[in-house]
Design goal:
single chain, 196 residues, alpha+beta, Immunoglobulin-like, 5-stranded antiparallel sheet, 3-stranded antiparallel sheet, rod-shaped
Length: 196
């Protein structure tokens, strides 16, 4: 060999899975992770798809409304306060709303109370005992009422609470819960905090 001559490089050995050189590390990112760019792109695409599905399938309100007026009465010989609630329910959903149940919830310093709405067939009997409420009653809002999309229904809900009229007047909260079939409950609150 001449002095200036570079010796030829030894041939690279062919890779043999059964005989891996000790210098080859299988726990290195090169061996254990896929390329970063495709993984990042896939994660972004999955996040966008999940976001779109969550937005489209989000819970939408089926109705809105409120308690328009509140009238309470407790004659001297009665232990409970009877309450007439005039309410409005608007169907803002895209399918008909059928009322399954109606209840009212009261929060006072004496605690929380609730009562299911009286049946319209009992109104005359209650108004005989609480005559000053009759003038504030309108068409009762009843179970099985059907409210079409975009329609509005006004009506009276009659309930009683085991508190005095003064305790009722000093209430902290009053709401009506309407439970429709196959939809989430609708909670209606007083439009004005003061009783009428």
């Amino acid at each position: 060999m001449a002095e200036n001559e570079v010796p030829p490089k030894p041939a690279q050995p062919q890779y043999d899975a059964g005989h891996v050189p000790i210098t080859e590390e299988f726990d290195s990112p090169k061996r254990s992770l896929p390329p970063a760019v495709p993984v990042v792109i896939a994660l972004v695409v999955v996040a966008i798809v999940v976001g779109v599905i969550a937005f489209v399938e989000r819970s939408k309100p089926v109705a809105q409304g409120g308690i328009d007026a509140v009238y309470a009465s407790q004659p001297a010989n009665m232990t409970n306060t009877m309450v007439v609630l005039q309410i409005t329910v608007s169907n803002v959903g895209d399918k008909a709303l059928y009322i399954k149940s109606i209840s009212a919830n009261l929060k006072t310093d004496q605690g929380d109370q609730s009562d299911d709405a009286a049946s319209p067939s009992d109104y005359d009997r209650y108004f005989a005992a609480y005559p000053d409420l009759r003038q504030h009653s309108t068409q009762p809002l009843t179970v099985e009422t059907k409210i079409m999309p975009g329609a509005e229904q006004k009506g009276t809900v009659l309930v009683a609470f085991p508190v005095t009229e003064q305790q009722f007047s000093a209430r902290k909260d009053l709401n009506v819960t309407i439970v429709p079939y196959d939809q989430t409950p609708i909670v209606l609150r007083e439009r004005s905090a003061a009783a009428k």
